[in-house]
Amino acid sequence: MMQAQQARAQNLKRWREQRLHEETLPSGLAVVIRDVDLASIVIEGSIPNTLIDVITQDAFQQLSEEQAGAKLMAEHKTDFNTLLFELIKASLVEPAIGEKSDDQHILYSELTFEDKMFIFNFMNREAQSLRPFRDKPEKFSEGS
Q1: Is 85 a domain residue?
Q2: Buried b vs exposed e over 46-70: b needs ≥16 C-beta within 10 Å?
Q3: Of 72, 85, 95, 99, which has the maximum CB count within 10 A?
Q4: Domain assignment present for 8
């Protein structure tokens, strides 16, 4: 029984560790980022519905990373900032986002926009890797 409990604890530890990534932000700050599921953040209700409607549209999904970021900043700056805050708060392990800055916490406002976008793009890396496949038109040979 004790071995089974230890095995479960080790399994949980390995699972958590595989979700952690050491990265260096564009500003030079070394961080530990945890994989988070954007859909879970949306379901928890911390993301404005207006933004969800925009980012789930097919036309938005066809935009490049740069175009999508520019559109969100131009048309939905406040909602996009809310999304960034919630995503970064959930994903930044070290240093964690805090209400005051100290040796273990950083203020959200201390991060540069470039750092925030780095984390946002890192969290969306799997979806971004599929983008080239979505952008290519399907070709069918005659007779198929």
Answers
A1: yes
A2: ebbeebeebbeeeeeeebeeeebbe
A3: 72
A4: no
